[in-house]
Amino acid sequence: QVQLLESGGGLVQAGGSLRLSCVASVHNFRSYAMVWFRQALGKEREFVATVSWSGSPTFYADFAKGRFTISRDNDKNTVYLQMNNLKPDDTAIYYCAADFRYGGFKASDYAHWGQGTQVTVSS
Length: 123
Known about the structure:
Number of strands: 11
Shape: globular
């Protein structure tokens, strides 16, 4: 059983930065590819970024390229999402998820989810 706990969300002005963290309670964290999704109010959950088991390769949604960076620390069972130059459209609940397979871009590809952390970007 994988338990995921996100943190680091908050209220930030447009152009600001946030760093999200997701800690996994699992003994074989290195076996899981990790992913960040987000869900804005009234919208479907959408893919943000994913990182493979060792930390490379990574893959980003178009809106995240150049602004967001996903990384992981396998010694700390943690995956991060550094978000820079935030925009009001980035306002959403951000979720991390885990799966043995790398490369899933749909929410249905993942069985293990955290509870999410709210990110609000003011204009």
